[in-house]
Amino acid sequence: MHAPSAGTVQEAEGKVLDIDPEVEIAKLLSLGYARTFQGELIAKFFVNDRDQALRLRLEESGWVLNYKGGAAPEETEQVKIRPELETGVTVPENMEAILEAIGFEKVRTVTKTRTTFILENGAGEKIGHVEIDEYPGIPPLLEIESDTHDKVLAIGATLGFPPERIVSDTIRDLEKRYGVRLGTKE
Q: Can you tell me the mean pLDDT for 88-97?
């Protein structure tokens, strides 16, 4: 998990589907990744009539409101690249009321189990961020996060995944791929 960031950050992420979590956990630990979080996440998704979306998620550090902007020009089928803004929220019920008052509608609540791994260099700088997500009803997946397309693919290669195994699926893409509804409709 991560603390809310200041300002706009570019996030690049790719997913590897249908993984064996135990195999991937062993691989990550053997490569020096540290397990920094394991637990349940609850995310509430809101949309408005301008096709904008926000996510209010309960993380280890507390509630976080997140906005992911539109696709960057360098986005590909393997890696999703979006500007991202987020901030901590102390009273989530009030934030939900504010979002609804300004025209956002809560469309779903999703619960998943997440295990987060971070790799740092000798100076304590994060050089790898990998998460294993387990949603009810679909096979486990591995998500690679970084700030560029090339870094996501490089981390994937280090983990033994060629570019063709990495996809940029959103939650809606996963639903279509597996023929399921993830989360509860509001």
A: 96
